[in-house]
Amino acid sequence: PALAPQAQKGQDVGMAALPYACGFEAAGGLMPWTSGGSFGAKAAVGAPEGAQGKAAVSTGTGKGWADWESPYLKVQAPQQVAIRLRARPEYKSGMVRVFLFKYDAQKRPLDLATRQQGDYAPALVGTLPSTGAWEKHRFVANVPAGTALVRVYLQAFGLDGTVAWDEVSVSEYQRDPNQVDSMDEMGNWRPGFPESTVAREIELVHEGDGALRYTVKVDHKGGEEKYPIGWPSLTWRPVPALDFTGKQALTFWIYTTTSREKLPGRPLTMSLRSEGGDEVSMPLSLETGKWQQVR
Description:
Elements: E1 15-17, E2 20-22, E3 31-34, E4 42-46, E5 55-61, E6 66-69, E7 72-74, E8 79-103, E9 124-127, E10 135-143, E11 149-172, E12 189-192, E13 196-201, E14 211-216, E15 233-236, E16 252-255, E17 268-273, E18 279-284, E19 291-294
Parallel strand pairs: 1-7
Antiparallel strand pairs: 2-11, 3-6, 4-5, 5-11, 6-11, 7-11, 8-9, 8-10, 8-11, 12-15, 13-14, 16-19, 17-18
């Protein structure tokens, strides 16, 4: 089976170089790929409210797909690239996701799943929740050696609602070599157990375009009788694994709020696990209502 989408019959997706930009104002940009009118899914260029000129619009009634795909983009691997876009997702159900598919020089797909990634699709770089508002996003992706071409794929699958897309661009990205993750996007951060959730935050941000809002709700009535707080957790599994050789510290910023009168003495524990199974844990003492740097 195909590991990455192929062009529709008779459709030439073209070739371009980095940096690449598409504002949907002229031909030659991202092209629509839909499951057809019988599913009620549509993808067309229009002028949705809040757009700066024209924009791509995906609409659906809960079936099929209304996606957009870029031309093949030439890259100089290994490198990192940044996919930037504006989007206004407003939907009841479905999946709105951003992929960066990778190919060799013969356009053969290279995105193979690994055990480290689990159920995380290897080409997936981000998921957009329904917000009903225009928001800017930046997704950073690794392009490994052996990759000659990449394609951006904007997915609206099983969508019951509308997603507007605009200002899509791909460019080489030079990350601070000391930065592990900007946390501007949810990426591969996963909440554990039903007591916790994670979402993108754009209002309470320390730096950059966004932050991650991790929420724990304790149900003293419907939760586990003897331990209603459960075992909430937030996990990130970077691929490839991080190399801490020559590093002295791991730091991050955190802002804490609570509905309780005060926090418990050690409300949060941070753990690092190695590929070999070793683990080190550190309980954190936090204060509410201000940004703190943990080191």
